[in-house]
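Lab notebook, bench 4. Continuing the backlog of folding jobs that were queued last week. Each job is logged with the same field layout so the records can be merged later without manual cleanup. Today's entry covers Pyridoxal-phosphate dependent enzyme, a 314-residue chain. Filled in by technician R.K.

JOB TYPE: sequence-to-structure
TARGET: Pyridoxal-phosphate dependent enzyme
LENGTH: 314
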Amino acid sequence: MISLDTILAAHDRIRPHIHHTPVLTNHTIDEQTGASLFFKCENFQKIGAFKARGGLNAVLQVADSREGKAIATHSSGNHAQAVAYAARQVAMPAYIVMPRTAPQVKKEAVRGYGAEVVECEPTQAAREAGVQAVMAQTGAVLVHPYDDDRVIAGQATAAVELIADYNNPPFDLILTPVGGGGLLSGTALATHYLSPTTRVIGCEPAGAADAVLSFESGRLESAPYIDTIADGLTARLSERTLGYIRQHVSQILTVPDADIVAAMRLVWERMKIIIEPSCAVPLAVVLRYPDLFRGKKIGIILTGGNVDLGKLPF
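JOB STATUS: finished
OUTPUT FIELD FOLLOWS
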Protein backbone atom coordinates (compact mmCIF):
# COMPACT_ATOMS: atom_id res chain seq x y z
CA MET A 1 0.00 0.00 0.00
CA ILE A 2 1.25 3.47 -0.87
CA SER A 3 1.26 5.52 2.33
CA LEU A 4 0.26 9.14 2.82
CA ASP A 5 3.91 9.92 3.61
CA THR A 6 4.91 8.45 0.24
CA ILE A 7 2.37 10.64 -1.56
CA LEU A 8 3.41 13.79 0.31
CA ALA A 9 7.08 13.02 -0.36
CA ALA A 10 6.23 12.68 -4.05
CA HIS A 11 4.58 16.10 -3.95
CA ASP A 12 7.63 17.66 -2.35
CA ARG A 13 9.92 15.94 -4.87
CA ILE A 14 8.10 17.11 -8.00
CA ARG A 15 6.98 20.52 -6.75
CA PRO A 16 9.93 22.46 -8.29
CA HIS A 17 9.15 20.99 -11.72
CA ILE A 18 5.34 21.26 -11.97
CA HIS A 19 2.55 23.81 -11.85
CA HIS A 20 0.16 23.96 -8.91
CA THR A 21 -2.75 23.99 -11.33
CA PRO A 22 -5.86 26.15 -10.85
CA VAL A 23 -9.35 24.94 -10.01
CA LEU A 24 -12.14 26.47 -12.12
CA THR A 25 -15.90 26.52 -11.70
CA ASN A 26 -18.65 27.35 -14.19
CA HIS A 27 -22.10 28.61 -13.29
CA THR A 28 -23.70 27.45 -16.54
CA ILE A 29 -22.43 23.88 -16.20
CA ASP A 30 -23.46 23.81 -12.53
CA GLU A 31 -26.99 24.85 -13.53
CA GLN A 32 -27.10 22.23 -16.28
CA THR A 33 -25.98 19.41 -13.96
CA GLY A 34 -27.61 20.58 -10.72
CA ALA A 35 -24.27 19.98 -8.99
CA SER A 36 -21.36 22.12 -7.77
CA LEU A 37 -18.39 21.15 -9.94
CA PHE A 38 -14.76 22.03 -9.22
CA PHE A 39 -12.48 21.37 -12.18
CA LYS A 40 -8.80 20.70 -11.33
CA CYS A 41 -7.17 21.95 -14.55
CA GLU A 42 -4.32 19.57 -15.31
CA ASN A 43 -4.67 20.65 -18.94
CA PHE A 44 -2.59 23.62 -17.71
CA GLN A 45 0.07 21.31 -16.26
CA LYS A 46 3.57 20.92 -17.67
CA ILE A 47 3.32 18.92 -20.94
CA GLY A 48 -0.41 19.69 -20.91
CA ALA A 49 -1.48 16.78 -18.72
CA PHE A 50 -1.44 15.32 -15.19
CA LYS A 51 0.99 12.65 -16.39
CA ALA A 52 3.87 15.05 -15.72
CA ARG A 53 3.37 14.33 -12.02
CA GLY A 54 3.85 10.56 -12.13
CA GLY A 55 6.55 10.68 -14.78
CA LEU A 56 8.60 13.15 -12.78
CA ASN A 57 8.21 11.30 -9.49
CA ALA A 58 9.46 8.08 -11.06
CA VAL A 59 12.26 9.55 -13.19
CA LEU A 60 13.61 11.75 -10.38
CA GLN A 61 13.85 8.66 -8.17
CA VAL A 62 15.58 6.66 -10.91
CA ALA A 63 18.09 9.48 -11.32
CA ASP A 64 18.66 9.85 -7.56
CA SER A 65 19.22 6.12 -7.07
CA ARG A 66 21.34 5.80 -10.22
CA GLU A 67 19.25 2.79 -11.13
CA GLY A 68 20.06 3.23 -14.81
CA LYS A 69 21.50 5.59 -17.41
CA ALA A 70 18.37 5.97 -19.57
CA ILE A 71 14.60 5.77 -19.34
CA ALA A 72 12.19 3.74 -21.45
CA THR A 73 8.42 3.60 -21.58
CA HIS A 74 5.45 2.97 -23.87
CA SER A 75 2.54 5.35 -24.25
CA SER A 76 -0.04 6.67 -26.69
CA GLY A 77 0.88 10.21 -25.81
CA ASN A 78 0.68 12.01 -22.48
CA HIS A 79 2.85 9.65 -20.42
CA ALA A 80 5.30 9.67 -23.32
CA GLN A 81 5.58 13.44 -23.06
CA ALA A 82 5.79 13.26 -19.27
CA VAL A 83 8.72 10.85 -19.30
CA ALA A 84 10.47 12.78 -22.08
CA TYR A 85 10.07 16.01 -20.10
CA ALA A 86 11.20 14.39 -16.85
CA ALA A 87 14.23 12.78 -18.48
CA ARG A 88 15.25 16.15 -19.89
CA GLN A 89 15.07 17.64 -16.38
CA VAL A 90 17.74 15.18 -15.19
CA ALA A 91 19.69 15.04 -18.49
CA MET A 92 18.96 11.34 -19.15
CA PRO A 93 18.23 9.82 -22.57
CA ALA A 94 14.66 8.59 -23.04
CA TYR A 95 13.26 6.04 -25.48
CA ILE A 96 9.49 6.15 -25.97
CA VAL A 97 7.60 3.35 -27.72
CA MET A 98 4.46 4.87 -29.27
CA PRO A 99 1.75 3.33 -31.46
CA ARG A 100 2.00 4.51 -35.04
CA THR A 101 -1.61 5.72 -34.71
CA ALA A 102 -0.84 8.05 -31.77
CA PRO A 103 -1.70 11.71 -32.48
CA GLN A 104 1.07 13.40 -34.43
CA VAL A 105 0.99 16.37 -32.07
CA LYS A 106 1.97 14.06 -29.20
CA LYS A 107 4.82 12.42 -31.14
CA GLU A 108 6.18 15.81 -32.08
CA ALA A 109 5.99 16.98 -28.49
CA VAL A 110 7.94 13.91 -27.29
CA ARG A 111 10.67 14.58 -29.85
CA GLY A 112 10.62 18.24 -28.84
CA TYR A 113 11.65 17.23 -25.31
CA GLY A 114 14.64 15.40 -26.76
CA ALA A 115 13.40 11.81 -26.50
CA GLU A 116 13.61 9.18 -29.23
CA VAL A 117 10.26 7.86 -30.52
CA VAL A 118 10.10 4.17 -31.48
CA GLU A 119 6.88 3.42 -33.35
CA CYS A 120 4.94 0.16 -32.96
CA GLU A 121 1.62 -1.36 -33.95
CA PRO A 122 -1.38 -0.05 -31.96
CA THR A 123 -1.76 -3.00 -29.60
CA GLN A 124 -0.79 -3.51 -25.97
CA ALA A 125 1.31 -6.54 -26.92
CA ALA A 126 3.26 -4.54 -29.51
CA ARG A 127 3.90 -1.75 -27.02
CA GLU A 128 5.22 -4.15 -24.39
CA ALA A 129 7.37 -6.06 -26.87
CA GLY A 130 8.72 -2.80 -28.23
CA VAL A 131 9.75 -1.45 -24.85
CA GLN A 132 11.38 -4.77 -23.88
CA ALA A 133 13.44 -4.61 -27.08
CA VAL A 134 14.48 -1.03 -26.35
CA MET A 135 15.50 -1.94 -22.80
CA ALA A 136 17.56 -4.89 -24.06
CA GLN A 137 19.33 -2.67 -26.61
CA THR A 138 19.95 0.38 -24.43
CA GLY A 139 19.95 -0.78 -20.80
CA ALA A 140 17.20 1.74 -20.08
CA VAL A 141 15.02 1.53 -16.95
CA LEU A 142 11.27 1.09 -17.48
CA VAL A 143 8.93 3.74 -16.12
CA HIS A 144 5.58 2.07 -16.75
CA PRO A 145 2.64 4.36 -17.55
CA TYR A 146 0.64 3.14 -14.54
CA ASP A 147 1.87 -0.20 -13.15
CA ASP A 148 4.43 1.50 -10.89
CA ASP A 149 3.91 2.78 -7.35
CA ARG A 150 6.21 5.74 -8.02
CA VAL A 151 4.00 6.82 -10.91
CA ILE A 152 0.79 6.26 -8.93
CA ALA A 153 2.11 8.31 -6.00
CA GLY A 154 2.95 11.13 -8.39
CA GLN A 155 -0.51 11.08 -9.96
CA ALA A 156 -2.02 11.22 -6.45
CA THR A 157 -0.60 14.72 -5.98
CA ALA A 158 -3.29 16.31 -8.17
CA ALA A 159 -5.92 15.21 -5.65
CA VAL A 160 -3.66 16.35 -2.79
CA GLU A 161 -3.77 19.89 -4.21
CA LEU A 162 -7.50 19.77 -5.01
CA ILE A 163 -8.35 18.65 -1.47
CA ALA A 164 -5.97 21.13 0.17
CA ASP A 165 -7.42 24.04 -1.80
CA TYR A 166 -11.17 23.35 -1.92
CA ASN A 167 -12.21 20.68 0.59
CA ASN A 168 -14.07 22.94 3.04
CA PRO A 169 -16.76 21.70 3.17
CA PRO A 170 -15.54 18.27 2.01
CA PHE A 171 -16.21 17.05 -1.50
CA ASP A 172 -19.01 14.51 -1.76
CA LEU A 173 -17.32 12.95 -4.77
CA ILE A 174 -14.13 13.15 -6.83
CA LEU A 175 -14.23 11.84 -10.41
CA THR A 176 -11.37 10.90 -12.71
CA PRO A 177 -11.10 9.07 -16.04
CA VAL A 178 -9.75 5.54 -15.97
CA GLY A 179 -7.55 3.85 -18.53
CA GLY A 180 -4.69 1.89 -16.99
CA GLY A 181 -5.78 3.13 -13.59
CA GLY A 182 -2.78 5.10 -12.36
CA LEU A 183 -4.62 8.36 -11.84
CA LEU A 184 -7.71 6.70 -10.40
CA SER A 185 -5.56 4.66 -7.99
CA GLY A 186 -3.58 7.68 -6.86
CA THR A 187 -6.67 9.85 -6.51
CA ALA A 188 -8.46 7.17 -4.50
CA LEU A 189 -5.49 6.75 -2.17
CA ALA A 190 -5.01 10.48 -1.61
CA THR A 191 -8.73 10.90 -0.98
CA HIS A 192 -8.80 7.94 1.41
CA TYR A 193 -6.09 9.56 3.53
CA LEU A 194 -7.04 13.23 3.28
CA SER A 195 -10.84 13.28 2.89
CA PRO A 196 -12.18 9.90 4.02
CA THR A 197 -15.86 10.88 3.71
CA THR A 198 -15.40 11.65 -0.01
CA ARG A 199 -16.27 8.92 -2.51
CA VAL A 200 -14.21 8.38 -5.66
CA ILE A 201 -15.77 7.33 -8.97
CA GLY A 202 -13.93 6.14 -12.07
CA CYS A 203 -15.23 7.22 -15.48
CA GLU A 204 -14.63 5.10 -18.57
CA PRO A 205 -15.57 5.20 -22.27
CA ALA A 206 -17.99 2.47 -23.31
CA GLY A 207 -15.64 1.76 -26.20
CA ALA A 208 -12.82 0.66 -23.86
CA ALA A 209 -14.75 -0.79 -20.94
CA ASP A 210 -12.35 -3.18 -19.24
CA ALA A 211 -12.10 -1.38 -15.87
CA VAL A 212 -15.81 -1.61 -15.08
CA LEU A 213 -15.79 -5.35 -15.84
CA SER A 214 -12.62 -5.93 -13.79
CA PHE A 215 -14.01 -3.85 -10.92
CA GLU A 216 -17.15 -5.99 -10.81
CA SER A 217 -15.50 -9.40 -11.21
CA GLY A 218 -12.38 -8.81 -9.11
CA ARG A 219 -10.05 -10.10 -11.82
CA LEU A 220 -8.49 -8.51 -14.89
CA GLU A 221 -10.93 -8.47 -17.79
CA SER A 222 -10.56 -7.31 -21.38
CA ALA A 223 -12.85 -4.77 -22.97
CA PRO A 224 -15.38 -6.43 -25.32
CA TYR A 225 -14.10 -4.07 -28.03
CA ILE A 226 -11.84 -1.02 -28.36
CA ASP A 227 -13.46 1.79 -30.32
CA THR A 228 -13.40 5.22 -28.71
CA ILE A 229 -12.41 8.79 -29.38
CA ALA A 230 -10.81 8.80 -25.90
CA ASP A 231 -7.49 7.41 -27.16
CA GLY A 232 -5.77 8.01 -23.82
CA LEU A 233 -8.06 5.55 -22.01
CA THR A 234 -7.62 2.36 -24.02
CA ALA A 235 -5.00 0.79 -21.71
CA ARG A 236 -6.03 -2.15 -19.55
CA LEU A 237 -5.82 -2.15 -15.75
CA SER A 238 -2.95 -3.98 -14.08
CA GLU A 239 -3.21 -6.24 -11.03
CA ARG A 240 -1.67 -3.40 -9.03
CA THR A 241 -4.14 -0.72 -10.10
CA LEU A 242 -7.12 -3.07 -9.89
CA GLY A 243 -6.17 -3.80 -6.27
CA TYR A 244 -6.07 -0.13 -5.31
CA ILE A 245 -9.27 0.62 -7.21
CA ARG A 246 -11.27 -2.24 -5.70
CA GLN A 247 -10.19 -1.17 -2.24
CA HIS A 248 -10.82 2.57 -2.46
CA VAL A 249 -13.12 3.39 -5.42
CA SER A 250 -16.90 3.38 -5.00
CA GLN A 251 -17.91 2.57 -8.59
CA ILE A 252 -16.99 2.89 -12.25
CA LEU A 253 -19.42 4.36 -14.77
CA THR A 254 -19.23 4.29 -18.56
CA VAL A 255 -20.38 6.68 -21.28
CA PRO A 256 -20.62 6.44 -25.09
CA ASP A 257 -18.46 8.54 -27.39
CA ALA A 258 -21.33 10.86 -28.33
CA ASP A 259 -21.58 11.94 -24.69
CA ILE A 260 -17.81 12.42 -24.47
CA VAL A 261 -17.80 14.68 -27.52
CA ALA A 262 -20.74 16.69 -26.17
CA ALA A 263 -19.01 17.19 -22.80
CA MET A 264 -15.77 18.18 -24.51
CA ARG A 265 -17.59 20.74 -26.61
CA LEU A 266 -19.42 22.09 -23.56
CA VAL A 267 -16.12 22.75 -21.79
CA TRP A 268 -14.60 24.41 -24.85
CA GLU A 269 -17.66 26.63 -25.33
CA ARG A 270 -18.53 27.51 -21.75
CA MET A 271 -15.19 27.39 -19.92
CA LYS A 272 -13.09 28.65 -22.86
CA ILE A 273 -10.36 26.07 -22.26
CA ILE A 274 -8.96 23.27 -24.40
CA ILE A 275 -9.41 19.71 -23.18
CA GLU A 276 -8.88 16.43 -25.00
CA PRO A 277 -11.57 13.73 -25.36
CA SER A 278 -10.23 11.50 -22.55
CA CYS A 279 -10.40 14.50 -20.22
CA ALA A 280 -14.12 15.02 -20.92
CA VAL A 281 -15.24 11.59 -19.74
CA PRO A 282 -16.00 12.51 -16.06
CA LEU A 283 -18.17 15.48 -17.07
CA ALA A 284 -19.91 13.22 -19.58
CA VAL A 285 -20.66 10.82 -16.72
CA VAL A 286 -22.16 13.63 -14.60
CA LEU A 287 -24.34 14.70 -17.52
CA ARG A 288 -25.45 11.15 -18.34
CA TYR A 289 -26.37 10.13 -14.77
CA PRO A 290 -27.83 13.36 -13.30
CA ASP A 291 -29.74 11.65 -10.48
CA LEU A 292 -26.47 10.36 -8.99
CA PHE A 293 -24.86 13.79 -8.84
CA ARG A 294 -27.60 16.37 -8.33
CA GLY A 295 -26.97 18.55 -5.28
CA LYS A 296 -23.47 17.17 -4.72
CA LYS A 297 -20.12 18.95 -4.39
CA ILE A 298 -17.90 17.25 -6.96
CA GLY A 299 -14.22 17.50 -7.81
CA ILE A 300 -13.28 16.59 -11.38
CA ILE A 301 -9.70 16.21 -12.51
CA LEU A 302 -9.43 17.63 -16.03
CA THR A 303 -6.62 15.38 -17.13
CA GLY A 304 -5.18 17.05 -20.21
CA GLY A 305 -5.45 19.30 -23.22
CA ASN A 306 -3.24 17.64 -25.82
CA VAL A 307 -5.82 17.46 -28.55
CA ASP A 308 -4.97 17.17 -32.24
CA LEU A 309 -6.51 20.38 -33.59
CA GLY A 310 -6.57 18.87 -37.09
CA LYS A 311 -8.94 16.13 -35.94
CA LEU A 312 -11.55 17.91 -33.82
CA PRO A 313 -14.80 15.92 -33.41
CA PHE A 314 -16.93 19.05 -33.77
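OBSERVATION: The longest strand covers residues 199-205.
SIGNED: R.K.
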